[in-house]
Amino acid sequence: MSGPLEGADGGGDPRPGESFCPRGAPSPGPPQHRPCPGPSLADDTDANSNGSSGNESNGLESRGASQRSSHSSSSGNGKDSALLDTTESSKSSEQSARARTQKELMTALRELKLRLPPERRGKGRSGTLATLQYALACVKQVQANQEYYQQWSLEEGEPCAMDMSTYTLEELEHITSEYTLRNQDTFSVAVSFLTGRIVYISEQAGVLLRCKQDVFRGARFSELLAPQDVGVFYGSTAPSRLPTWGTGASAGSGLKDFTQEKSVFCRIRGGPDRDPGPRYQPFRLTPYVTKIRVSDGAPAQPCCLLIAERIHSGYEAPRIPPDKRIFTTRHTPSCLFQDVDERAAPLLGYLPQDLLGAPVLLFLHPEDRPLMLAIHKKILQLAGQPFDHSPIRFCARNGEYVTMDTSWAGFVHPWSRKVAFVLGRHKVRTVPLNEDVFTPPVPSPTLSLDPDIQELSEQIHRLLLQVRVEGTGLENEEGVRNRAMDI
Hints:
Elements: E1 19-20, E2 26-27, H1 41-49, H2 51-114, H3 124-148, H4 151-154, E3 166-168, H5 169-182, E4 186-192, E5 198-201, H6 204-209, H7 227-236, E6 264-270, E7 279-293, E8 301-310, E9 326-331, E10 337-340, H8 345-348, H9 352-355, H10 369-381, E11 387-395, E12 401-412, E13 419-430, H11 451-464, H12 477-485
Parallel strand pairs: 3-7
Antiparallel strand pairs: 1-2, 4-5, 4-8, 6-7, 7-8, 9-10, 9-13, 11-12, 12-13
Helix pairs in contact: 1-2, 3-7, 10-11
């Protein structure tokens, strides 16, 4: 038995969303939108006269409602499809843009890695990080250009801005050619203090750097330097601290011995444009300050005149004689390089700035590092007096070791009676198999500060913190240096 449907009797309420017509047939949908379709008088007449007419009429209405529903559904589906197509097209465009950006990023990273110095190259994530750090350092150096070349306007009251001769380009070429003709490894270049650009460079530069002369036209000199050397160049060429290029260098008065002036060591980029990466050659730069008139009627502008001499490996022709392969160093009680003789550059392949502040033990052969503890013990025992020690092996820039006879002396501070610094005099005994010490090794060796180096450095530091009480071997710094040079 079937029970009465809810709402079928007169007293029942229709369910939500349904309404009842007089004939009792439920009509789907909300009442306000779907009223009960009561038949008209014509429909009744047709129904009484022909029973099939009502069925046909109901069929037409049903088909019309179905078509309207189908049209509404297809219209909604069309909108959804269009929206979906738009969303997919937007996603595809974003993915394409992201892929293009990633490709450009990888291309830029590859190009940056090609320009990275060999000793800084790494693999994987460490290589990418080193590349980005190197690029950041380059950006900082470029920003420093503008600050550096404003020095002249700030230092016009300094003596260097007064009593200065002015030269034309022809006069400058005539004077400096005497140096370049005498030494084929030398060229001269004048850099404007106002713009930092090259205003003159001798023809010998293109030969030494193996590139066309057009490369230098209008270029910033700092852009030709290795990025790690730009700061050294800036710090050594402040206008107020430079000697003046005077009339004493003219042809009638003889050549000036520019090697007696304060020099700076930098690596300059060269090589043909087709090379995959830049190649740097080491040079000794001797800076002067002068004024140059670029053209007739143009005002003279202050310039830094540089005499650049290429540095060769001391073991290649022209070789440094074996009895002249000597250099000196100075390091702190914590075994950090404090000063390096410029004579070390052709013997080890490092420029002075490469070693300053670096741990001494880092460059020694691992088997020779413990010898440094015995050396510093003897320095303390002898109250700084000089003494000879057994040879040690030092890693050159090309990755090979040179064996050096060493002599050591210490400076004991007269007030604190502690060793303030240590002087070393080194003479190369055996040369590396690869005589070109400036060539970076491939692959580049990783000189890392491992815990053994750190621990040994701390032992030496604690040792030298002891106070010298006995003995009278106290001497000033100049005396210690003179004795070390006489060993």
